[in-house]
Amino acid sequence: MPMLPKGKGWCLDIGCGDGHHREDIRDKGYSWIGCDINQERIENYVLADALCLPFKSNSIDVVFSNCVLEHMKDPFVALNELQRVLKRQGKIYLQVAFMEPFHGSYFHITHWGLEELASRSKLRIIQIEPGATTFVPIWGQLFDIVGISTCKIVITPIVFFIQIVLKRLGYIGIVVFCGKKSWQFAKFHGYFDRLPLKLAGHIKCIMEKP
Prior knowledge:
The protein is α/β, with parallel strands linked by helices and 210 residues long. It is 39% helix and 22% strand. Strands 3-2-1-4-5-7-6 form a seven-stranded mixed sheet. Helix 4 runs antiparallel to helix 5 (148-177) and helix 5 (148-177) runs antiparallel to helix 6. The relative contact order is 0.15.
């Protein structure tokens, strides 16, 4: 989990499932607390709904959420709850589904959606970046026998190569037909810088409680 830096304190793993991120989070230096709506017999596990967390306000140092928010019936309420239990200057490290196919999810969230969620919860966005490109989770849904890790090895280089080719062809086309002084040329690099985010299967985000 490269987004979660090393640190200390309590890390709340929302939608933790069977606790498969527990050891990774502990390896980062945190004390792990798992929370999910399904009963699991594991250490430091809390059976609870993220829409009404059984924790005191300002009691959690870090929140970790890996592709969980899109499965909640009201992500706005959920993020308000995470903001409530988080200490000041505490951070939320989350990943959400954007263009991933339906997988028991209520909402798929764009980068604009994340900005709105943060704004309503009075959280400050520190970073937004694309996760796996949309072709990887689509491939994983269609051919789950292959496995998502194998798909990344095959699909990611192909997508990266296609993006480079498109950028080079687009650059040549704009220079030839519009010129370097055109508004199209001025916006060209900005468009392609944002293209991975527009094609993201998942979006990663870091938020902070001021």
